[in-house]
Amino acid sequence: MVKKRGVKKRGSTKKSSVKSRSKKAPKRSKKQKIILDIGKGGFVFGIILAIVVGILLGTSNVKLGLGVGITYSIIFLLGLIVGILNITVDEINEFLIAAITFLVAAGVNVFVIKMTLPLFGGVIEQISVAIGVFVAPAATIVAIKAMYELAKKK
Question: Do residues 73 and 124 touch, judged by C-beta distance below 8 A?
Fold first, then answer.
């Protein structure tokens, strides 16, 4: 029996060379899953803490003191943790675009709200500041990761 070139036999189990276009999530080790969970929990806790701190500072006449400084330091450290643990190389562009958009838009949003609804302006301003304190260090870490990845390619 002579085989012809380029002709597949019936019942052949050869796989097609066409690759699937859908991306599957990479398999992660148990340690990677724990780190990812810590990062996710840190992100949720950081945002909630920033909102609560913003509301408390916006509704009271508390001046920037030791307690407020420590609270902002905790929010800042949570931002660093999120930037280190939670943002993967595949998410760098999306995160940086979202962070820049928030940090730029927050100032304009606060200005408009203070002009139109002065009663809520202080609260919204403090919430935006607290979330900015959380997002800025995460964005800095992710930007450093992006620069490292770019340098690694060359």
Answer: no
